[in-house]
Amino acid sequence: VRILLHILQINQCHIALEEDKLAAIEAMTAAMSELADPRLELCLVHAKYPEGGERQLIQVLSGKEIPSGGLPVDIGYLCHNVSTALAVYNMLGKGHALTSRVLTVCGDGVKQPQNVLAPVGTTIEDLVKHCGGYVGSTHRIIVGGPMMGFTVESDQVPIDKGSNCVLVMPESQARDVSTPMPCIRCGACEEVCPASLLPQQLYYHAQSTQLEQLPALNLFDCIECGCCDYVCPSNLPLTQYFRYAKDELSLHTQQQQQAGASRDRYEQRALRLQHKQQERDTARASRQQAAQNTGQKKLDIQAAVARAQARKKPDESGS
Fold first, then answer.
1. pLDDT, tens only, 155-199
2. Which listed site, 65, 69, 79, 283, has its alpha carbon 20 to 30 Å from 113?
3. Positions of E strands within the chain
4. Is the dihedral of CA 150, 154, 157, 163 positive or negative?
5. How many other β-carbons are positioned within 10 Å of the β-carbon of residue 10?
6. How far apart are the C-alpha atoms of 105 and 130, rounded to whole Å?
C-alpha cells in the first residue's frame, strides 16, 4: 500500500475490511500499529453483499456516489484490491512477475476448502485435487463466486490473472435453472439492486432486442452482482441478459467506430485524389500555356525575320 501511495502521489488510504473478518482485522491492526503510518486508516464495513464492489465500497467509505458512466477517479478516488497490492509488492519488492494467483477453492463439493497460491494456468481439476478432491459424483463448478460467477462445463478450465474463487457445489445445492416464467412486474429485483436500476425494464428491452434503449436506462451501471436473479420469483436469468446486452452494445459501438474510421479513410482518400487531380490539371494547364507561349514566340520570331528580309530586298524599280 505504501508503494502504491508513493507511485500515485496520494497521502491518504482507507483499508476496508468486513467487520466479521476478525482474524484479518487483528492481523491488519497489528501491521498498521507497527508501521505507525498516519496515511493509513483501517475502516470496517458491514458484511453485506455486494458492499465490497468498487462503487458501493467508495460510497460507503466516502459518502460520495460515482456518477453514472463515470469512474472513481472522477470524484477523486482510486480503488485497488489486495491482489493488486500483492502483485505490485512482488514486482517492485521481489522482482517477481505476476505468474501466480491467490484464490479460494470452496464449496460443499470439495473435501478441504482453502485458499491457495496457484500458478496462472492451473486447471480447476488440479486445484480440487490439491484440496482433497471432490465430494460426491455430481457437482457444479462456478468460477467467481455464487452470485457473480459463471458456470463452467469442465474442470479442465484453467485459472487466469482475474480468477479469485472456484466454487464447487453439489447439484442438490445448485440454483434451479428450469424454464423461466413470464415477468410478473413484482418489483423485487428493483428493491435489491445496489445500483438503483430498473432490472425489469432492462430485461424487457434486452430480451426483445431493443438494445438502443438500454444506455438511457444506465445498463452499463449494472455491476452484474446477481441480486436480481436471486430474488426473481419467475426464475429469469436477468444478469445473463444484461451481460449479453452489454456485449452486443459494445460490439455495435465498435462496429460503428470501425465504420466511422473506414468512412474517414475513404473521405481522406477521395480528398487526396481530388488534390492530385487538381495538381495534374494545374500542371497540364501550365504546360499548355507554356506551349502556347512558345508557339507565339516562334511566330513572333518568324514575323520579325520576314520583316527583316523584306527590308533587305532591293526595290523592283531598281531604286
1. 999 999 888 899 998 877 766 666 788 889 999 999 999 888 999
2. 79
3. 13-18, 40-45, 100-106, 114-119, 139-143, 150-152, 165-170
4. positive
5. 13
6. 10
